[in-house]
Specification:
cell membrane; DedA family protein; 207 residues; transmembrane helix; mainly alpha
Length: 207
Amino acid sequence: MQSVIDWLVDVIATTPPWVVYLVVWALVYCESAALLGLILPGETALLAGGVAAAVGETSVGWLIVGACVAAIAGDATGFSLGRWSGPRMMRSRLGRRIGEERWDKVTHAIQHNGVPTVLGARWIGYVRTLTPFVAGMSRMPVRLYLTANVLGGVVWVTAVGMVGYLVGATVGARLLLYGGVVVGVAAVIFFAVSWWRSRHDARDPAA
């Protein structure tokens, strides 16, 4: 395990800055523009990029500036797609997998709160991914949406990116990776136990 952690630290520290920039910016953009956030939340990419900037040659300034542009552009793309083909997307296979309940929750929030929802959505997993599409479908005024999009995107990217940078600089990449391994193993065990219990309850309803 020690050798694996050391290897990962070396990879993070020696990755060329342009690779870090492109990967982080692409993932942040695609989170909302292509619903990638349902699989890989943008915080993951931003935090990893911040750590890479703390232990390697990546500039945290350029990382954050580019990620701000990517986040704003990604949400603007999702907003436009929602206006053009939102209902059709909801009826697609991916839309059905997301679930009607999730779509309804975001739609209700957009219709009743508007700008505060767009601002707050940046901090809530799947809500951040779905909000641009729902805002577009709901015909939210473009000027209001763009204002909230820019403000929310800049605050979110800066905060998350700097958290990754500061944690990487103070705690260290090795300790972060060890912590990640522990959390990952715990998550696997938790889901395995939950799956086993659900199977057991299904086979024995009287239990």
